Amino acid sequence: MASTIRDVARSAGVSIATVSRAMREPSIVSVETLRRVRAAADELDYTPSQLGRQLAERRHGANGIVFPDLSGPYYGEVVVGYEDVASELGRAVLILATHGRPAAREMITRLAGRCDGLVVLGHTVSDEALLELAERGVPLVTVARPPVAGVDSVAAENHRTAFALATHLADSGARSVVFLGNPDRSPDVTERRAGLFAGAREVGLEVSELRVETMDEQGGAVAAEHLCQQPALPDAIACANDELALGLMTALRERGVVVPRDVLVTGWDDVMAARYAELTTVRQPLRDLGATAARFLDDLIAGRRAEPRIEVLPTELIVRSSSSPRER
Amino acid sequence: MASTIRDVARSAGVSIATVSRAMREPSIVSVETLRRVRAAADELDYTPSQLGRQLAERRHGANGIVFPDLSGPYYGEVVVGYEDVASELGRAVLILATHGRPAAREMITRLAGRCDGLVVLGHTVSDEALLELAERGVPLVTVARPPVAGVDSVAAENHRTAFALATHLADSGARSVVFLGNPDRSPDVTERRAGLFAGAREVGLEVSELRVETMDEQGGAVAAEHLCQQPALPDAIACANDELALGLMTALRERGVVVPRDVLVTGWDDVMAARYAELTTVRQPLRDLGATAARFLDDLIAGRRAEPRIEVLPTELIVRSSSSPRER
DNA sequence: TTGAAAGCGCTAACAT
DNA sequence: ATGTTAGCGCTTTCAA
């Protein structure tokens, strides 16, 4: 059994209040007392119980972060950026992966009971669930999902860069483009789609949409099959993420389609494989997303902020040969 | 202010003990009382304080997982496998990334004070630090590091598959191979190196070693530069991980070296980019590693296990054209 | 500078 | 089936 504050107090011949003071504010205790307490603590191998502390202080000293999944390169980076800042600020980090489970709401509610505040990423729970938490007074920051009234939010720019992507495709000689993705899967996708459509209209690019069930390589392969059954391929295919684009390119090539000669393909995310596949894509400040959320949350918990904040971090179009006219 | 068990008790006209019972074991309370308590709890929007519970039960209901980093595809998958099982078992998950920081030891000690047990991945802290925790009675499971006396351990097989890799290279026509990596970076690497060396000797393959500073694409590029300055390239280069191999291949090609005609290259991990680069590599059961660790830890915490366990999960050689003789 | 004592919100004997 | 009460290990007034 680990020793408690009482053991140390007895052994040092002081009261527990003095031990407490010696541990948290050594300067307000006489040097001699401090010495004795320290000696006793060392001797007994005493570490203050977090549980005792937390209950007395009525704070957890921990934050939660909720995400759909951690496979794939995306959320891992965001979580790292978050963890880095949070642990710098001396707070523990609790994680929760929802995996699209319907029980997500209860899971998050439970999590909320274990920490001082929550960061919620992407497509994990409904806005109502968040609002309920917010009403209960749980400090909340969302990342990569549309702002919820009164809740802090951090996101990566989608619309403008998707607009720029449309322009780039037109400049590369495309006359038509199809957007490949599933807007139901994530709010980000909806914005990318809207940006691409807006850009396409602006530059006179004929634009349409093809929905996929899953936004992974499998989904890309399915889309390739579908597209190849049409009378003609579009000039360009803008995919909602890289995995989709990679799966698509692979499947197209298996069917003898040459990218980018026969069709331009683009992704979104700039995962590592995108470089090796020479895929034009969009890079997001993933770590920054997490780090910013961590700071926002800390401000909320410390009560340093009243007005809800909405921050949109810039993204960057990365042009590679999968959409480059020079190589066609 | 959130309502407490006393508020509910008063409002329902019962004692706090009854409220406690109604919340945790409804069956031992009369239906009428249960109804009244539930009504009061609903009315007051009562959720039992985790902090109060935890202190009274003297358990955190949470486990920690410690890893070097979450960028790259490796640890993220392990953490997901872990989180999945742990949350299934009703335990919260605390994460800690050490980033090779020297303060890792204190960070882990702090973390240990917040949970009922710890999973420690790879190159994060010294064995002594772990032994100290184990002595303090903290349930512990290590993953992907050499077993520490008395501590449960889960790892992926390295030696045998590295041995098989050497055989494969010899079968592909190689007469010499260099192992590229940095054994100081991770215990896994040491084992892969040993396995490769043993296999190479067995099949009469000339084997040597080249150390890199960093085991990422940058490290691979540096190695390429070094190798190209030698009078001749080896027949094969076995890299300690995929990132190294990918960086190496890219840099070699920039220098006009043709893979696999001029030199065979292999990696380790089977990251997504490896498929697109046609890289021969070794696949590890990452999620399983995490899931197994979670179960081991739960057994320890529940006191279901006395003898320390060591589990080694099998890995699989994935042959692609970067080392295939048929394409040479 | 130090100590006594009253919580923090809950669980779990023990008693009824 | 329910209530009383004594903790769990700490922090923090309030006095001395």
UniProtKB/TrEMBL annotation, chains A, B:
The keyword Membrane does not apply. The keyword Transcription applies. Signal peptide: none annotated. GO terms for molecular function: DNA binding. InterPro entries: HTH_LacI (IPR000843), LacI/GalR-like_sensor (IPR046335), Lambda_DNA-bd_dom_sf (IPR010982), Peripla_BP_I (IPR028082). Keywords: DNA-binding, Transcription, Transcription regulation. Residues 3-57 form the HTH lacI-type domain. PANTHER family: LACI-RELATED TRANSCRIPTIONAL REPRESSOR, LACTOSE OPERON REPRESSOR. This is LacI family DNA-binding transcriptional regulator. It comes from Nocardioides baculatus.
